[in-house]
Amino acid sequence: MKRFLLVVGLLLGFSGTGIADSLQAPSLWKNQRGSELRVTSVRNGRFTGTFTNFDPNYKCVGIPYPVTGITSGGPTMFTVNFVKCNTVTKWSGNALGLGMSTQWVLRYAGQTQTGFDIFFRLQ
Ligand code: BTN
Predict the structure, then answer these.
(1) Which of 1, 55, 103, 107 is 20 to 30 Å from 113 by CA-CA measure?
(2) Cis link prior to 64 (omega < 30° from 0)?
């Protein structure tokens, strides 16, 4: 199932069409790690909400942190400062319909980690 969702997400996000949706408020997105992005406000291409990590491979699990980002019909980008864990992660990707394929860069204690997250809209 995870592999199927990954393929769909990749097709949506990297289809090369140059078309992307803006995120809407309110909306709730969940990624393949179980983490949740809740969008509570979108105004003039900027959005706010919360991001909760549910990946048990990380320390800060189950704590909602503020998220800020931009979304205006092109790439969507957002940042979360996981204060308790001294980690800042930035996501960048494209929303299309109920899917959003992203790449992220995580910075912790002078180290950098990168990866992919695919989000699916639940609400
Ligand atoms: C930490 O424990 O250092 C903070 C949580 C980091 C969770 C990362 S952010 C990128 C990736 N996507 C997720 O949903 N969780 C991990």
Answers:
(1) 1
(2) no
Distance (angstroms) between ligand 1 centre and the Cα of 63 equals: 11
DSSP state, residue 25: S
Query: Candidates 57, 63, 65, 89: which one to mutate for ligand 1, based on the most atoms within 8 Å of Cβ?
Result: 89
What sign results for the dihedral spanned by CA atoms 51, 67, 79, 83? negative
Q: Which CATH superfamily is domain 2-121 in?
A: Avidin-like (2.40.128.30)
* pLDDT tens column, 34-81: 999 999 999 999 999 999 999 999 999 999 999 999 999 999 999 999
* Domain residue ranges of the chain, discontinuous segments joined by +: 2-121
